[in-house]
Amino acid sequence: MSSRPNPVQWVRYAYGAKLPDSKREWVRNDLTGPMATPRHLIRTQFAFSPLYLALFFAFDGAVWIRALMVLLAVLLALIFSAAYMAQNRVVRMRKHGLGHSPLTQRQRVQADAAKLRYDEVYVSRRA
């Protein structure tokens, strides 16, 4: 597997930049490998961190009120990043020349197994 991106490359990648072609296999593993979903959620939370800091420090008021504003923003960001995870994965994969499937490696194995079971049951009956 290719080496990990350096911290500057990773920050740029978290905000949507394309990594060099030498990092293509790392990107494939990041987007489709084990723990792809938690990595996606962490990456998007990192991208929202300037907003969280702005919400906390830009307003006056009790600390608990500002903390609740940030908590609400975190929850909304998690909901939206989870809802658009497949679309985000496809965009990143296309950007890096890795195809356009939104499936992770585990989901792809499960889909292939389901297709084999379907073919065994229904295709063999037609023949």
From TrEMBL:
Keyword Transmembrane attached: yes
Entry's transmembrane regions: 65-86
Pfam families, alphabetized: DUF5313 (PF17240)
Swiss-Prot/TrEMBL keywords: Membrane, Transmembrane, Transmembrane helix
Protein name as it appears in the record: DUF5313 family protein
Organism listed in the record: Gordonia hydrophobica
